[in-house]
Write a structure and sequence with these properties.
The protein folds into three domains: about 425 residues, no CATH class; about 140 residues, 2-Layer Sandwich (Transcription Regulator spoIIAA), CATH 3.30.750.24; about 140 residues, Jelly Rolls (Sandwich). It is built from 27 helices and 15 strands. The strands form four sheets. It has a five-stranded mixed beta sheet with strand order 3-4-5-6-7, sandwiched between helices. Strands 8-15-10-13 form a four-stranded antiparallel beta sheet. Strands 9-14-11-12 form a four-stranded antiparallel beta sheet, with no helix packed on it. The radius of gyration is 39 Å and the shape is elongated.
């Protein structure tokens, strides 16, 4: 959809334009449209002269006509369909510069015997096809919503581009007023007495504008100053006795421009005369023009977003420019798109309205059909002063103000891009900006700590609940299990740091060997070849100590990448789908190495409870209230969602609490064995079961029903007290372990 944001139909768009015709908005829109229209005419004329130069100079008038028709069409369509009212479109410098190379190449490829009509037709068709191809490319990018790719450019890169745009506006304005293209070679000419008088008044006008507009914010102030500047110019000229001819001969007025119409229909009927081989030889340059125009359009739109201080749909801007160039291509116009400088000027004039672009278009059409001689009445110092004002605004914001707002590294990036644009060229500045963006990304991303959390088996345990003796052993020897929860992308900027972290941990362990290293890949998005090499080195380091390296919770594509890179599952390296499963395996091996049986020797429940509460009174009486239950493997003791009618004390066997969802594998929450209790939380809170409890092996349990608890509390307070002490003791272990784990995660 190409209609502007908020415009649901052509009728709504029409009503928007009608509202802009109200006197309150009309005057500022007319003033802005007039200024912008005059500037757009000048831009189109300069681009026409740039492309139709040398052997093609005989067709300069027609070339200017193509520039004006392209600027008019692009200006109208962008004005109507852009996201932000006041956005202006027109012919652009980057595609014009590349197109001049294409035109010169085509003219050079044509033989000396080729007639002038064939030369013009070939170049004109090449321009039309290039504009159409660019429009199609823009439109497809916007349709498939690929415009947001430019938002990956860092803020200082955008700032450097805006500062460079300001510099180009300043140098272009001085060149316009002094009739000299400023460069390092001729900078001395600008300060000659006769030349400095041409551009110094415009500079003073720009400085006055900048100073006043910063202190006062009124819509009519800016247009009033423009009218006042024109009136002051002619007043001084009248007092000095200067005629219009004298002012023009002194280079103080715009022009001179041709009086005749510059419109000529596209030579589509002369396609047979076109030298297609000459056009074909320029296809690489045409492709470069399309790509560079795309980057420039997105940069302009992003810069306009900053200048207008509101969000802009880049995809909508691409579609609007795509449609504009498709239509302009049919008429033979130059490549055009959103103009950052003129759009900012329109907004700065207080005329953020679509009518501004239509008024500007009307000026282009008037110059196209009636000639542009009337432009000779407009003082260069006013046009150049406006451009200087806008350029100085950009430079002030991104060179002076940025010094106080941005970190020094980002500020240096802005200056560097500005320096490249000023000394080398705009295209080179854009290239430097892209390279700088990549470097900034790599540097910033490499600073992100790849290790999210670091802990040992002392503070992290599996969901397999152990006996008191096993817990003590695992806490004492838990340093042999080293756990790293990783994050982000493991590449050359972070992989070596990961390897050094693990090496340092093993060195700090000293005589306490690290047997197991668990790398949690759940938050890892990918890795490159350098990350692969670091993992291979890590495997060798762990294997040298007789340990095992675990890759846990890695995505399937990462596992395939690791296997292709030479890291196969087995031996000193193991892939594991779940972190809890890998941690339980390590705990089991550690207990085996320490001589601890994985399955405790069966003991009567009374003996187990006495070990937990050796001084408790009433334990024997408590057992008389419990119901002995023998359950087979796979039997549900507790069903998720049911009312909590009982809890279970485990004498022997093993049970697992798990979350169950239809169509999905159950998620293990906790596995417990003898000497533990299950179902106590729901039993005490009275809330429905949040998980199921299933026996893993044949088990013997003792069940306490809710009605039995009330009977115990009434008949035997000592037994009830022993029960509550037991629950507190078992829960305190879980809470203590949880607090220790949280402390580690906060480090």
């Amino acid at each position: 959809m190409l209609l502007p944001a908020g415009d649901k139909s052509p009728l709504t768009l029409a009503s928007t334009l009608i509202r802009e015709l109200r006197p309150r908005h009309l005057l500022s829109s007319v003033m802005a449209g007039t200024v912008v229209g005059l500037l757009e005419i000048t831009i189109s004329i300069s681009f026409g002269a740039l492309i139709f130069a040398g052997d093609l100079s005989a067709f300069l008038t027609n070339g200017i006509g193509l520039g004006l028709i392209g600027g008019a069409i692009t200006g109208a369509i962008v004005a109507l369909f852009s996201t932000t009212p006041g956005t202006l479109g027109g012919s652009q410098d980057i595609p014009a510069a590349v197109m001049s190379v294409v035109a010169a190449g085509i003219a050079g490829a044509l033989s000396f015997s080729t007639s002038g009509e064939v030369s013009f037709a070939t170049v004109a068709i090449a321009i039309a096809l290039t504009t159409s191809l660019t429009g199609l490319f823009f439109f497809l990018l916007g349709t498939f919503e690929l415009g947001n790719l430019v938002r990956f450019l860092p803020y200082p890169v955008i700032g450097g581009f805006l500062a460079g745009t300001g510099w180009l506006l300043v140098t272009g304005a001085i060149g316009l007023m002094a009739d000299i293209t400023p460069s390092l070679d001729n900078v001395g000419l600008l300060f000659q007495s006769d030349v400095i008088l041409l551009w110094m008044p415009g500079l003073l006008f720009a400085v006055v504008l900048l100073t006043i507009m910063e202190r006062f914010d009124q819509d009519m102030l800016f247009p009033g100053m423009i009218v006042g500047a024109v009136a002051l110019f002619y007043l001084v000229a009248w007092i000095g006795g200067n005629t219009r001819g004298q002012l023009s001969s002194q280079g103080l007025l715009m022009g001179p421009f041709p009086d005749e119409s510059m419109w000529q229909a596209m030579p589509w009927t002369e396609l047979r005369q076109v030298d297609w081989a000459a056009i074909g030889s320029q296809l690489p340059n045409i492709a470069a023009l399309v790509l560079l125009s795309t980057v420039a359009l997105l940069l302009n739109a992003t810069g306009l977003e900053v200048a207008a201080k509101q969000d802009i749909s880049l995809n909508r801007e691409l579609r609007a420019s795509g449609l504009a160039n498709l239509v302009a291509g049919a008429a033979g116009g130059f490549v055009g798109y959103q103009q950052l400088g003129l759009s900012a000027l329109s907004i700065r004039l207080g005329a953020g309205a679509r009518l501004v672009g239509l008024i500007s278009t009307a000026f282009c059409l008037a110059a196209l059909t009636a000639g542009a001689a009337f432009l000779s009445l407009f003082p260069k110092m006013v046009v150049g002063g406006l451009l200087l004002f806008l350029g100085l605004e950009f430079l002030k914001a991104w060179v002076y103000d940025a010094w106080f707002r941005l970190p020094r590294v980002e500020y240096v990036v802005i200056l560097f891009i500005l320096l490249v644009i000023g000394l080398v060229g705009f295209l080179e500045g854009v290239a430097v900006g892209v390279v700088t963006a990549i470097i900034l990304f790599v540097v910033a991303y490499s600073r992100i700590e790849v290790v999210r959390h670091e802990m040992s088996g002392k503070h992290a345990s599996s969901r397999k609940t152990r006996s008191a003796v096993q817990r003590q052993f695992l806490i004492a020897e838990g340093h042999q299990i080293y756990i790293l929860r990783l994050q982000g992308f493991i590449f050359f900027g972070t992989s070596d740091r990961l390897l050094n972290v693990i090496r340092r941990r093993m060195k700090e362990a000293g005589g306490s060997m690290v047997r197991f290293v668990l790398l949690d890949f759940r938050r890892v998005t990918g890795l490159d070849s350098s990350g692969m090499l670091s993992l291979i080195k890590l495997q060798e380091v762990v294997a040298a100590q007789g340990g095992v390296l675990f890759i846990v919770d890695a995505a399937e594509e990462i596992c395939l990448q690791l296997e292709k890179g030479g890291l196969s599952n087995g031996g000193a390296l193991r892939f594991c789908g779940q972190f809890d499963e890998a941690l339980e395996w390590c705990e089991n091996r550690l207990l085996e190495w320490l001589g601890q049986p994985l399955t405790p020797v069966p003991q009567p429940l009374m003996q187990q409870l006495s070990a937990i509460l050796p001084e408790a009174v009433g334990l024997e009486r408590l057992l008389t209230y419990l119901e002995r239950v023998e359950a087979a493997a796979g039997e549900h003791l507790i069903v998720q969602g049911e009312e909590p009618e009982s809890l279970y004390l485990i004498e022997s066997g093993q049970v697992t609490a798990r979350l169950e969802h239809p169509g999905r594998e159950p998620l293990r929450l906790e596995t417990v064995g003898s000497g533990h209790v299950v179902g106590e939380l729901g039993f005490y809170t009275g809330k429905k079961r949040t998980a199921s409890v299933v026996t893993d092996v044949p088990s013997v349990l003792y069940r306490l029903r809710r009605q039995d608890l009330a009977r115990i509390e009434q008949e035997n307070p000592a037994a009830a007290s022993a029960l509550h002490q037991l629950m507190v003791q078992l829960l305190s272990y879980r809470v203590t372990h949880l607090v220790e784990t949280v402390k580690v995660l906060e480090q």
